[in-house]
Write a structure and sequence with these properties.
73 residues; 0% strand; mainly alpha; elongated
């Protein structure tokens, strides 16, 4: 478990959570609504994963272009 509230907040910041998400999560945690807070973190995680997938598609397109150009040389 995290030792301090500050450690949780820092972890959320490091994970790219916005300040409103952090505030809502901490409020949920303090008021015994941990499951609501976890739902918000799950949503943030899904958004991050979607961003990764979008960036992977861009990399794939770029790699394909480079492959085609090298193949022609």
């Amino acid at each position: 478990m995290f030792e301090t509230e500050e450690a949780i907040i820092q972890n959320l910041k490091d994970a790219g959570c916005r300040s409103d998400t952090i505030d809502a999560f901490m409020d949920n945690l303090k008021t015994g609504r941990k499951s609501e807070g976890l739902k918000a973190l799950d949503l943030h995680r899904r958004r991050l994963l979607e961003e990764i997938h979008q960036e992977q598609k861009r990399l794939d397109c770029l790699d394909y272009l480079v492959y085609q150009l090298k193949k022609e040389a």
